[in-house]
Amino acid sequence: MENNLKNNTQNSSIIKKFFKSKIFLVFLVILILINSYYLFNKVFYKGLPKCSLEYTGYTDNNYCIKKWKIFYLLAQFAWRDFMGYSISWDWIDPRTFEILNDIYAKDNKNIYKYWTRLEWVNSNSFEVLEYWYTKDNKNIYKYWTRLEWVNSNSFEVLEYWYTKDNKNVYRYWKKIEWVNIETFEILEKNYLKDKNNIYYNWKRLEWVDPKTFEIIKYLVINNHVINDWYIKDKNSVYYDWKKIEWVDSKTFELLENYFTKDKNNVYRFWKLIKWLKAKTLKILNENYLKDHNNVYYYWEEVKKIEWADSKTFEVLEFYKKTFELWNWYYAKDKNNVYRHWKILKWADSKTFEILDEKFSKDKNNIYKESSTTFYDLETFKVLSREYVKDKNAVYDYSYWKKILWVDVETFQILKNNDSYAKDKNNVYKYWKKILWVDVETFQIFKSNDSYTKDKNNVYRYWKKIEWADLETFEVLNTSHSKDKNNVYFLDEIEKWVDPKTFKVPH
Known about the structure:
Blueprint: H1 2-20, H2 22-44, E1 57-58, E2 63-66, E3 69-76, E4 82-86, E5 98-99, E6 104-106, E7 111-113, E8 116-118, E9 127-128, E10 133-135, E11 140-142, E12 145-146, E13 156-157, E14 162-164, E15 169-171, E16 174-175, E17 185-188, E18 191-193, E19 198-200, E20 203-204, E21 214-215, E22 220-221, E23 224-225, E24 230-232, E25 237-239, E26 242-243, E27 253-254, E28 259-261, E29 266-268, E30 271-273, E31 282-283, E32 288-290, E33 295-299, E34 301-304, E35 314-315, E36 318-320, E37 325-327, E38 330-332, E39 337-339, E40 342-343, E41 353-354, E42 359-361, E43 366-368, E44 371-372, E45 381-382, E46 387-389, E47 394-396, E48 412-413, E49 420-422, E50 427-429, E51 432-433, E52 443-444, E53 451-453, E54 458-460, E55 463-464, E56 474-475, E57 480-482, E58 487-489, E59 492-493
Antiparallel strand pairs: 1-3, 2-3, 3-4, 5-6, 6-7, 7-8, 9-10, 10-11, 11-12, 13-14, 14-15, 15-16, 17-18, 18-19, 19-20, 21-24, 22-23, 24-25, 25-26, 27-28, 28-29, 29-30, 31-32, 32-33, 33-34, 35-38, 36-37, 38-39, 39-40, 41-42, 42-43, 43-44, 45-46, 46-47, 48-49, 49-50, 50-51, 52-53, 53-54, 54-55, ...
């Protein structure tokens, strides 16, 4: 019994000594500081995220805290901390700080745009409007500029960037002169009218007759005009408010590819094309057109194709599901084959055929664009947009480069990804052989084709990622991946980054 009492007395004295010791005081201070930090963040910063290394890339909701300061974040990278600007401690009240959207924030004293304080703005009455307009009880603002000439009480945001108050109408923040506030009407995104005039943006079109004014709708999608450049009245036709000279307004009509015509002439935008005959004009596609005498090719300007026979001229349209493209570049007549507006030398018009976007052939040659090639005519094949082959070799599609070490007979493109290929011995990315890879077990990550693996290793393109754990490896985005041990940027380990807590933004 006495021994138990002695032991209890000794234990209580040890506990008392511990509570009075410096170690306990240090521990207590640390505990208080940690709790104070989280309480301060919760109460004063309302749970703003830390500017940490968890995120990578450019962000949208850009306010965060670091070292007791609020930052507006531009970008945050796991390999080099973050890029951002702090909001001055002299301005900010962290207890009332509130994020309004990805541009604006406020507290009970100030409004902030990004990391900058907007002076003159009343915080209590501040309101975000459409099209980047804002207001308070005294003023209207566009971005951070105060629009002193606008009446804030009657200000109203309209469609297509138009606004108004009780006296004026504005396009963006520019006043439209002479407009009648009582009769004005928005026609389309660039046009406005009142009882007296037609306006383009904020310009008055004095020469246009408002009574017979008409927008020629070229293309309408979801009730919005996509091409509203052409207008007309009883006197003329206008392109982007410029008068088209010599045009006959009554017979004017829109054609494909921004060509137009009337009973006499053909036009491209507002320019007259003198040698084109309106009566016999035929637009073949977006590049080729012809009349009864000549054939033309349009590329920035209309070019006459010399020697082309208009009667037998035809565009060679090519479609193949493998490549998912239309080919508008080739045409032929009874005498020649043309690529763009140039004759394809040595090409035989009768046997010429298009193989894909760059390659074509006839009875004599394989052609790449406008040049003859060294490929074997009988065995040449386009395998994908990365590879072509003949009986002798496999070649890079774009650079004519022969791919070394390839077994031609067993060479094949991998499914769903035409940049990877394999034969019985190797796997290839473009023209490069991927070293050390096991051909039979090689596969591409579905989430990102930059990454591949076999039974032994993980690869990024043709480079092995050292130390990667095969079973737990996962691709996060185009540049980041991780396993149970590490986070990787491209094919390098990100030092000091914890794979358990590391995240990337969606």
